[in-house]
Amino acid sequence: MISVGIIGGTGYTGKYLLEFIKQHKNIADYTIYANSSAGSKLLDIFPELLGVIENKTIQSVKELSYAHDLYFVSLPHGESLKYIPTLLAKGIKVIDLGGDYRLDTKKLYDEWYGFEHTSANLLSQKVYGLADLNSSKISGSNFISNPGCYPTSILLALIPLINNYSDNIISISSVSYSGSSGAGKSAKTELLLSELDGNVKAYNINKHRHQPEIEQELTKYGMKFPFAFTTHLLPIARGIYSTSTIHLNSAISEFEITEKYLNEYANSIFVRMRKVPPELKWVVNSNFCDINISVKEKTVVITSTIDNLIKGASGQAVQNMNRMFGWDDSLGIQKIIEN
Known about the structure:
This protein has two domains: 2-125, NAD(P)-binding Rossmann-like Domain (Rossmann fold), CATH 3.40.50.720; 150-307, 2-Layer Sandwich (Dihydrodipicolinate Reductase, domain 2). It is built from eleven helices and 14 strands. The protein has helices at 12-22, 42-45, 84-89, 106-113, 135-138, 149-165, 193-196, 210-220, 254-264, 310-324, 334-338; strands spanning 2-7, 27-34, 59-60, 70-73, 93-96, 127-128, 143-145, 169-178, 201-203, 227-233, 240-248, 271-274, 289-296, 299-306. Helix 1 (12-22) crosses helix 10 (310-324) and helix 6 runs parallel beside helix 8. The chain is globular and about 60 Å long. The model has no long low-confidence stretch (mean pLDDT 93).
């Protein structure tokens, strides 16, 4: 049994962390730490969790205890840097749900996030927590950087292809669509219902912070060709749908490619290969990533979909915790599998 601290647990991802932690049989206790909401009761922030969680008082992060075995850190960009170095120096395990440690170099971070990284020495110490592919590195590690939501949907869809056929790929273009919860709880005009309803738009073209993260990880598996990434906002609350188009030098059969994926994910209960393009509603409220592969001559189209708040954040974080401690992947999130 372990004790868990959550720093910044009052946003959307914090809500699901609370649910998963509460039903996890190997977690003895937990404490929530925050800034502006310190002193508030959890059920005042999450009234829908009445009967699910205890109505604990949120503690101030200024009085952070170092008595927990593991900390989930879910803070805005730049804020994690204030706490993670100290936690790690004390030998405490950390899973960071933010973006401060996802990139491998200070230069990339400073360029894409607009902050100066104050603990760049830790960038090489973290394990990138793509749970369904990096399991051997995650097991027994002390510091995991949880992937972004867009990268999770795209990397799970592309890595097996690139890993096996990199020399045969000319280019890849990934187009992704997200619900508004990906932007967090902060009030923004463009996220008002009156702005979203009946509307779809592209945003952050050629400047989305997840692009260098995706390219960084794909390069590790052999990417040496052009990659394009374009994001869109959907008039829905949650979910991510990604469509990746891959152009090849020579044709490969759909059966051959699909077999590579089935082998890659044979031991992953949370990646499901579909015979038809998946639908977003199949994965919302779950930790699943659904993938379909379609091949026509020298063109491969891979569709993938996840719940951005669960597989793209809290669910994958709990899956990473389970692997970190050598537990079954589904612990704490097994109820989702049953739904």
